[in-house]
Amino acid sequence: MQTSEAASRFAGRPPVIPLEEDEQRMLDEEGFLVLEGFADPTLVARLRRRIEDLFALQGEQAGAEFRQEPGTDRLANLVAHGEVFEEVVQLPRLLGAVEHVLGPAFKLSSLNARSARPHSGWTQPFHCDTGALPDTQGNTVCNLLWLLDDFHVENGAPRYLPRSHRAGILPEKALADPVAPHPEERYFTGKAGTVVVMNAHLWHGGTANQTSRPRLALHSFYCRRDRPQQQYQKRLIDPDLQATFPASLRWLLALDDPLNDQLSGETTNQSGFLR
After folding, report:
1. Would you tell me how many other CB atoms lie within 10 Å of the CB of residue 147?
2. 8 A C-beta contact, residue 190 and residue 151
């Protein structure tokens, strides 16, 4: 690629803060990185308040831009619904982690909230996000899990299989029952404000919330720029709102990217387990 072409391709890209070497090593070897206390209580409260307002406003239509899931309340396309969401998808330290997983050419694929209902009894099958495996160019998906409640095993903390991002096979092809407990599974637990950076080829899935309170998370999902968005932002976000976005957010949402129009206009709403 010529220098001018490369510069044009990354024009407007938001700044990133690279990971430390030990953080890079953790992501590479284990498939995830836990950033304890990343979001301070004020940011957690802002996110929770806006999400609760949207659940109340959208009612039964909540999350209709994507797909419904048993035992779960969802919101989708959150960049269209408040400045706090515009902020969190562009945080330089988190984008540094995304860049480490995907390389410099990435974009936001979707921004969703997921609330596991009390006593839901619903466990997700082990899956890789969008049902994707790495290709010859490397990883294609990266998910940031924001803990907006304390996560523990009883309230549905996500489970995962360490190092499974390097398995080279999807869990539904390798496991007799992807929903069943696995002897090597572990859980993402922690205090509200923790952010888990996950190579989303890692086998993972939400578990049943056995408590009397809902358990809330935010999912910032990114993909490589040569892959379709899970939610086609250009189509979902009101054009008048798009016109207010700075260049950095436009780049991150691929609003001015003809390749994204082609890819995401044809294939979208992909999930690793919802069909």
Report:
1. 26
2. yes
Residues 202, 209: Cα–Cα separation, whole Å? 22
Residue among 113, 132, 118 nearest 66 (CA): 113
Closest-CA residue to 175 (of 155, 190, 161)? 161
Burial class (CB in 10 A: 0-12, 13-18, 19+), 14: middle
Convert the pLDDT of each residue in 107-163 to its tens digit: 999 999 999 999 988 899 999 999 999 999 999 999 999 999 999 999 999 999 999
Rounded alpha-carbon distances, angstroms, from residue 106 to 10, 59, 128, 159, 175: 10, 32, 18, 26, 31
Q: Which of 145, 171, 141, 140 is nearest to 156 (CA)?
A: 145
Closest-CA residue to 225 (of 78, 108, 87): 108
Rg (CA), the chain: 18
Residue 100: phi and psi, rounded to 5, are: -65, -35
Q: Which two tokens stand for residue 61?
A: 């239509």
The phi, psi pair for 190, rounded to 5°, reads 160, 180
